[in-house]
Inverse folding.
């Protein structure tokens, strides 16, 4: 309710506030109580929170169906969030060390008096856990020195920094295609090699996409790069150049994340190299930059994912990959429920979809309020007001027909002059309600996207008439 009172907040900011302040409170400890939450409790309490939050984002009426309001506001249902939290909990339990008491819990499914954890186990029966990586309390002791990691925020300065780097340069890269993940690297010594030369390159196929991901592959590539540094090298600068910011951030601040074993291996190798008086640093090199060594590293990584490539040894399954696959398995295709949102389905067959973010995020609160009314059909027009008893008749002020959304936008003779901006947006789709409200009509192609110019022209027209605004009406044509 407090979020809804913030009248000047844009839809984008309101959605962020909902996800950061409201949803975490509602979902607290949901893995314990979600199974005991019946339909009545869901409908009366949790759906009420969802609808109020959606109204705070778009300004839609409270009478809009919850599923439609969530689709317009582009927020996930509480069931989706609860399922995701339970999945992460299940994977987290299987990544604990064997010495942890939680790792020894018996999760055998019983028919009577099943605990919340047993119900989660029953729902996660298809999640493979035999090859799951183990996540320890820490990868590197808190008192140990951290590897120097430089991630320059400015892309141009980062590119310039990679060009000025000197010493033993090692560019690393990862590749994921054809269901296979691989990594590669290229090494050059600035003392003896030109900018386009390389001492050596390496290429390794790590595993299937169901086990690894580009992030863990990049960590493996960095570890392999440090192994390639000769033991006789002394008092030199060793620079790792990587385009994966996530991998570098994990190395700079190692915590309880995927690839922890590889991060620990990287620190052990760095300590071994530093014993010879060498200095090791890692620099972020933007992808697609004019950097010859990085191009060779990328080519080496792509060789590892060519058709027919198979890994030599089956690696562990990354925690992040396991969570992603488990959530994807349980996620159902999004669609509005049967019998709900008949009007919304007619004007936008793509609901629910990500395009609603495009529609609302660039609007002000007042503009979003108008668009939400037009897209949900619950407006301050007489056709709707008469249904709820707020108007005596559904006849438009022009006196010719019922004041529906379509009549108001295209046919009402009171606002002909204000409609010129809308008509200039298209020559062939005039009168198409879906086009002007940013929806997908059945005749649109798969690569369809909303025409924001037409949407903004429609909002401008509606605001000029004042029919959807409580502050008053505009001046009709004479």
């Amino acid at each position: 309710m407090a979020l809804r009172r913030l009248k000047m907040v844009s839809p984008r900011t309101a959605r962020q506030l909902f996800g950061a302040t409201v949803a975490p409170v509602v979902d607290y400890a949901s893995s314990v109580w979600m199974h005991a939450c019946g339909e009545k409790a869901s409908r009366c309490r949790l759906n009420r929170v969802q609808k109020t939050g959606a109204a705070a984002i778009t300004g839609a009426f409270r009478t809009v169906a919850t599923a439609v309001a969530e689709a317009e506001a582009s927020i996930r249902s509480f069931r989706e969030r609860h399922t995701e939290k339970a999945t992460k909990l299940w994977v987290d339990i299987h990544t604990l060390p064997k010495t942890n008491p939680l790792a020894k819990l018996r999760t055998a499914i019983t028919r009577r008096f099943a605990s919340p954890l047993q119900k989660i186990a029953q729902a996660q029966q298809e999640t493979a856990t035999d090859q799951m990586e183990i996540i320890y309390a820490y990868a590197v002791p808190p008192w140990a020195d951290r590897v120097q990691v430089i991630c320059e925020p400015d892309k141009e300065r980062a590119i310039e920094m990679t060009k000025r780097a000197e010493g033993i340069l090692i560019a690393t890269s990862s590749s994921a295609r054809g269901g296979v993940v691989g990594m590669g690297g290229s090494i050059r010594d600035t003392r003896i090699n030109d900018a386009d030369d390389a001492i050596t390159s390496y290429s390794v196929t790590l595993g299937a996409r169901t086990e690894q991901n580009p992030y863990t592959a990049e960590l493996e590539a960095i570890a392999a790069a440090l192994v390639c540094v000769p033991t006789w090298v002394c008092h030199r600068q060793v620079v790792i150049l990587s385009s994966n910011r996530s991998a570098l951030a994990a190395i700079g601040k190692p915590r309880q994340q995927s690839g922890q074993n590889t991060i620990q291996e990287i620190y052990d190798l760095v300590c071994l190299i530093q014993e010879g008086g060498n200095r090791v640093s890692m620099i972020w090199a933007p992808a697609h930059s004019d950097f010859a060594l990085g191009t060779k590293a990328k080519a080496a990584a792509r060789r590892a994912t060519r058709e027919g490539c198979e890994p030599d040894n089956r690696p562990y399954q990354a925690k992040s990959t396991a969570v992603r696959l488990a959530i994807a398995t349980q996620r159902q295709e999004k669609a509005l429920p049967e019998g709900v949102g008949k009007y919304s389905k007619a004007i936008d067959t793509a609901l629910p979809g990500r395009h609603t973010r495009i529609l609302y995020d660039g609007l002000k609160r007042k503009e979003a309020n108008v668009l939400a009314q037009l897209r949900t059909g619950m407006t301050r027009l007489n056709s709707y007001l008469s249904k709820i008893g707020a108007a005596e008749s559904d006849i438009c002020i022009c006196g010719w027909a019922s004041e529906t959304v379509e009549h108001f936008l295209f046919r009402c003779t009171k606002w002909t002059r204000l409609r010129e901006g809308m008509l200039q947006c298209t020559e062939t789709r005039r009168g198409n309600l879906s086009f002007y409200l940013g929806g997908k009509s059945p005749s649109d192609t798969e690569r369809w996207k909303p025409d924001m110019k037409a949407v903004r022209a429609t909002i401008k027209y509606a605001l000029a008439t004042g029919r959807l605004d409580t502050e008053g009406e505009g001046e009709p044509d004479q």
